């Protein structure tokens, strides 16, 4: 635009100079000089001096018009730039506030912030994901799904936890499977895929994935313990699969990682006979605290283990962990009266948190609701 104006002015100046030369030459010979312009049905007749004057006025008007146009354009551009800058600042502020709210686990603040402003366009997927998270926080799963469905295809594979929380297991697996099944899948992608398989209860795929790709997960011992605890419990609650056969089919490395969770799951769901040898070894080695920790959620009893514990109690009648183990097994066998008596005797000893669950069962089953209530109240306080 500027170059066009410059060229136009240059041409007009040249024409003006040409007219000035012509006019000057005629003035020198004392002649006015006439100009006759004819086009179509129109004819313009003028002297060179008049034409020169008209050309000067024309150039001046064009220059003035150009100046005004530039001034108006500068004002408009300035207003637009200020509005754009304010909008961008609001978007950046909304993004920053949402990130801090997400870091501090404040979904309520997320929802409020996103109502005030949009994110920058390049963060559109992140905004939708955060809005879905905020919706899930207040239990609006349908709304969360709508936000998740608006995500770009590449972003949908990065929010598997949100898909799972929105009860869209199939969608989570569909978006995760292509990346997770690649040989060079990252630990993060595999972790998300395993979590999705567990929630979707796809036991066969989960089993094969764990067996074949467990080295790629790069989990710590704590992570493996948490996974296997959830894995065995889910299988026992939601399937008819034999966890003993599954455990036996694991590679040696996985059996080591899953052993503790396997023992806890067997005891909790009343399969004590399967791990009885393990528990008897603990008893013989005087690992009473470890044994008590395993039996705190016992869902059944075992006569042989109970007799072995009673035999040890004859030698150490005041050993509190052994007394608790006996009470847990008594509860599992339905002998809640014996369990309640044991917990009454333990009330004079420093109370341990792991006794809580079994004590509540014993007192509730024997009609001693006040004692059970006091136990619950003490825990809450």
Automatic annotation (TrEMBL):
It comes from the Bacteria. Its main location: membrane. The keyword Transmembrane helix applies. The keyword Transmembrane applies. Residues 33-104 form the HemY N-terminal domain. It is found in: Membrane. The chain crosses the membrane at residues 47-65. InterPro entries: HemY_N. Coiled coil: none annotated. GO terms for cellular component: membrane. Keywords: Membrane, Transmembrane, Transmembrane helix. This is HemY N-terminal domain-containing protein. It comes from Pseudoalteromonas luteoviolacea DSM 6061.
């Amino acid at each position: 635009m500027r170059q066009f104006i410059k060229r136009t002015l240059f041409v007009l100046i040249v024409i003006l100079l040409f007219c000035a030369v012509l006019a000057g030459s005629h003035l020198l010979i004392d002649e006015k000089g006439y100009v006759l312009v004819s086009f179509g049905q129109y004819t313009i007749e003028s002297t060179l001096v008049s034409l020169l004057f008209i050309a000067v006025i024309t150039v001046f008007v064009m220059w003035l018009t150009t100046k005004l146009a530039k001034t108006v354009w500068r004002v408009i551009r300035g207003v637009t730039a200020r509005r754009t800058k304010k909008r961008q600042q609001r978007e950046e502020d909304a993004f920053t506030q949402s990130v801090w709210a997400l870091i501090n686990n404040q979904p309520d603040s997320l929802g409020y912030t996103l109502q005030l402003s949009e994110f920058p366009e390049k963060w559109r997927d992140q905004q939708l994901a955060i809005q879905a998270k905020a919706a899930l926080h207040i239990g609006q799963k349908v709304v969360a799904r709508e936000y998740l469905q608006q995500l770009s295809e590449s972003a949908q594979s990065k929010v598997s936890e949100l898909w799972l929380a929105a009860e869209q297991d199939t969608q989570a697996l569909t978006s995760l499977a292509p990346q997770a099944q690649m040989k060079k899948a990252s630990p993060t992608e595999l972790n998300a895929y395993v979590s999705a398989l567990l929630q979707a209860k796809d036991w066969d795929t989960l089993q094969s994935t764990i067996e074949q790709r467990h080295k790629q997960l790069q989990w710590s011992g704590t992570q493996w313990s948490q996974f296997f605890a959830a894995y065995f419990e889910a299988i026992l609650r939601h399937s008819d699969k034999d966890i003993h056969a599954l455990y036996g089919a694991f590679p040696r490395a996985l059996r080591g990682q899953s052993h503790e969770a396997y023992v806890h799951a067997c005891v909790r769901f009343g399969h004590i006979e399967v791990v009885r040898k393990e528990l008897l070894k603990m008893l013989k080695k005087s690992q009473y605290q470890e044994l008590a920790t395993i039996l705190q959620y016992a869902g059944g009893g075992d006569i042989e283990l109970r007799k072995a514990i009673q035999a040890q109690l004859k030698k150490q009648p005041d050993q509190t962990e052994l007394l608790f183990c006996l009470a847990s097994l008594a509860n599992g066998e339905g002998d809640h009266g014996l369990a309640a008596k044991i917990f009454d005797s333990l009330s004079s000893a420093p109370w341990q948190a792991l006794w809580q669950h079994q004590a509540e069962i014993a007192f509730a089953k024997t009609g001693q609701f006040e004692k059970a209530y006091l136990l619950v109240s003490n825990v809450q306080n």
